[in-house]
C-alpha cells in the first residue's frame, strides 16, 4: 500500500473533511465523551448513533487501514492519521470497535484463509457481529497453555466440550474465538484456535458480578458443540502462535489512557475543589501537588512513547512484545490516578450510592474498583514482566507464561 505525502495527502484531507461534514450527524456534535461511552457500550446502537455507525461501516473508515477487498478503508497509514485528525477536529468518535476490530480481525487478516477472511472480516468492518474471547479457564489463566477445553476430531467437524471463564461480553456476543485442546499428549503444541456461534444449543453463558457493581464478563459452558472444520484458524495444533499474536493486538489496544475515571489533565483542577488553593492559587497540599504533577508527567511521557513506538513500528509487522511494556505502564499510571482521586476526595471518595455523594464521586469510586482489573486482564502485570524479561531483555526462559 502506497503511503502518501504532500499534495495527495492534502487532497485526501479535503475529501475526508467534506465526507465527515456530510455524514457525521449534527446531533452528535459537541459531546465526544458521551460518544466515547456509546462506543464502549454493549447496548445496541440507536438513533443518530446507529446512522453514524452504519455510514462509517459502509465506508470502511472504522478500520481505515484494513484492505478494501474485505470492506476496510484501504487507506495508507498517513491518510488514516489525517482521517483521525479530521474526526477529532469535529468531535467525531469511531463507532466501530469491539473484540472483532481490536483482536480477532487483525489476527484473521494474518492467519486466516481467503475464504475465512471473506466470510468474517466484512461483518467486523461494519460491527454487525459481536465477538468474545474464550481463552481463560478456571485452571488456565496466566498459565494459559494448561487449558483443557477439548475439541475431538469427528471427521467434518470438531466436538467441543469444556468451560471458559472471565469471557468479557459473552452475554452479548454472536461469535467466540476460542482456544481448544486438539492433542492431549502435548501442552502448547496441542492447542488449536477455532471460532463458533454463541447462539446455539450447548453454549451457556452465566454473567459474573464484578466488585464495581456491573457484570462485564461471564462463565461460558460448552457442551457437545459441533464446530465445522472450516472454522479452524491457522494450523491444527498451531493455535498457540495465533493466540500469542492475538494477545499482542489485545495489549496494543490497552496503551491509551484508560481507567482512573477522572481525565488526566483535570486531576489538579478537581483536587482544588476538595483541598483548596494556597495564596498563589496552587493546590494547597504541596505533597499532593507534586504527586499529581508526577502522574501527569508520566501520562504525557507514556502518550509520547506510545506515539513513538507506533511510528517506529510503521512498516514492520504490527505490534510486538513491546506492547507488554506499554500495557503495564498505562495500567500503573491509570491506577495511580484513581488512587490520587480517592485520596483527595477523602470521605467523599468512599461513596457507593445515595444523596450524600455527587455523580463524580460515585463514578470515581467505581472507576477505582473497576480499574483494579487493568493489571489482570490481557495477562497480569507479572505475566507481562515475564514476557518483557524473556522476549525483550533476552533473559533465560524459566516460565511457561503467555
Ligand atoms: C476484567 C477482566 C476481563 C477479562 N476478560 C477476559 C476475556 O474476555 N477472555 C478471556 O479469556 N479471559 C479474560 N480475562 C481473564 C484474564 O486474562 C486472566 O484473569 C488473567 O490472565 C489472569 O489469570 P487468572 O485470573 O487465572 O489468575 P492466575 O493465573 O491464577 O494468577 C494469580 C496471580 O498469580 C500471579 N502469577 C501467575 N503466574 C505467574 C508467574 N508465572 N509469574 C509471576 N506471577 C504469576 C498472577 O500475576 C496473579 O497475580 C479477563 C480478566 C479480567 C479481570
Sum up the overall morphology in one term. globular
CATH topology of the largest domain: Butyryl-CoA Dehydrogenase, subunit A, domain 3
User: What is the CATH homologous superfamily assignment of the largest domain?
Assistant: Butyryl-CoA Dehydrogenase, subunit A, domain 3
Counting DSSP H or I runs of 4 or more residues, the number of helices is: 12
Q: Tally of extended strands? A: 8
Strand content: 5-15%
For the biggest sheet, the summary is:
4 strands, mixed
Helix content: 40-55%
Largest sheet, spatial ordering of strands: 1-4-5-8
The small molecules bound here are: flavin-adenine dinucleotide
Cα(first) to Cα(last) distance is 32 Å
Can you tell me the CATH architecture of the largest domain? Answer: Up-down Bundle
Mind telling me the C-alpha Rg?
23 Å
Low-confidence stretches: none
Q: What is the H/E order?
A: HHHHHHEEEEEEEEHHHHHH
Structural class: alpha+beta
Describe this structure in words.
With 402 residues, this protein is an alpha+beta fold. The protein has three domains: 91 residues, no CATH class; 108 residues, Butyryl-CoA Dehydrogenase, subunit A, domain 2, CATH 2.40.110; 140 residues, Up-down Bundle (Butyryl-CoA Dehydrogenase, subunit A, domain 3). It is 44% helix and 13% strand. The strands form two sheets. A four-stranded mixed beta sheet has the order 1-4-5-8. Strands 2-3-7-6 form a four-stranded antiparallel beta sheet, with no helix packed on it. It is globular and about 80 Å long. The mean pLDDT is 91. The protein binds flavin-adenine dinucleotide (FAD).
Amino acid at each position: 500500500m502506497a503511503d502518501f505525502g504532500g499534495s495527495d495527502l492534502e487532497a485526501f484531507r479535503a475529501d475526508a473533511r467534506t465526507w465527515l461534514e456530510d455524514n457525521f450527524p449534527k446531533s452528535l456534535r459537541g459531546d465526544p465523551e458521551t460518544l466515547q461511552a456509546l462506543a464502549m457500550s454493549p447496548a445496541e446502537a440507536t438513533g443518530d448513533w446507529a446512522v453514524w455507525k452504519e455510514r462509517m461501516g459502509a465506508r470502511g473508515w472504522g478500520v481505515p487501514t484494513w484492505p478494501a477487498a474485505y470492506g476496510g478503508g484501504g487507506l495508507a497509514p498517513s491518510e488514516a492519521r489525517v482521517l483521525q485528525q479530521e474526526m477529532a477536529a469535529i468531535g467525531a468518535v469511531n463507532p466501530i470497535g469491539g473484540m472483532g476490530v481490536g483482536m480477532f480481525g487483525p489476527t484473521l487478516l494474518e492467519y486466516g484463509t481467503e475464504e475465512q477472511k471473506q466470510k468474517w472480516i466484512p461483518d467486523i468492518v461494519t460491527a454487525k457481529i459481536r465477538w468474545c474471547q474464550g481463552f481463560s479457564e478456571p485452571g488456565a489463566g496466566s498459565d494459559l497453555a494448561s487449558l483443557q477445553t477439548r475439541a475431538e476430531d469427528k471427521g467434518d467437524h470438531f466436538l467441543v466440550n469444556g468451560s471458559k471463564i472471565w469471557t468479557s461480553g459473552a452475554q452479548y456476543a454472536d461469535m467466540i474465538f476460542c482456544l481448544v485442546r486438539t492433542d492431549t499428549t502435548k501442552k502448547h503444541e496441542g492447542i488449536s484456535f477455532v471460532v463458533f456461534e454463541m447462539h446455539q444449543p450447548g453454549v451457556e453463558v452465566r454473567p459474573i458480578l464484578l466488585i464495581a457493581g456491573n457484570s462485564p464478563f461471564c462463565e461460558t459452558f460448552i457442551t457437545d458443540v459441533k464446530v465445522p472444520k472450516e472454522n479452524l484458524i491457522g494450523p491444527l495444533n498451531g493455535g498457540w502462535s495465533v493466540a500469542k499474536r492475538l494477545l499482542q493486538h489485545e495489549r496494543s489496544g490497552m496503551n491509551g489512557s484508560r481507567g482512573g475515571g477522572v481525565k488526566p489533565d483535570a486531576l489538579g483542577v478537581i483536587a482544588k475543589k476538595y483541598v483548596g488553593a494556597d495564596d498563589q492559587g496552587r493546590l494547597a497540599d504541596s505533597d499532593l501537588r507534586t504527586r499529581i504533577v508526577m502522574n501527569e508527567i508520566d501520562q504525557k511521557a507514556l502518550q509520547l512513547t506510545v506515539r513513538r513506538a507506533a511510528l517506529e513500528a510503521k512498516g514492520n509487522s504490527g505490534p510486538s512484545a513491546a506492547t507488554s511494556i506499554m500495557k503495564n505502564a498505562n495500567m500503573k499510571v491509570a491506577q495511580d490516578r484513581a488512587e490520587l482521586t480517592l485520596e483527595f476526595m477523602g470521605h467523599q471518595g468512599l461513596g457507593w450510592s445515595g444523596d450524600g455523594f455527587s455523580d463524580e464521586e460515585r463514578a470515581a469510586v467505581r472507576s477505582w474498583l473497576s480499574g483494579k482489573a487493568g493489571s489482570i486482564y490481557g495477562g497480569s502485570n507479572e505475566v507481562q514482566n515475564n514476557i518483557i524479561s524473556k522476549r525483550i531483555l533476552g533473559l533465560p526462559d524459566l516460565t511457561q507464561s503467555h
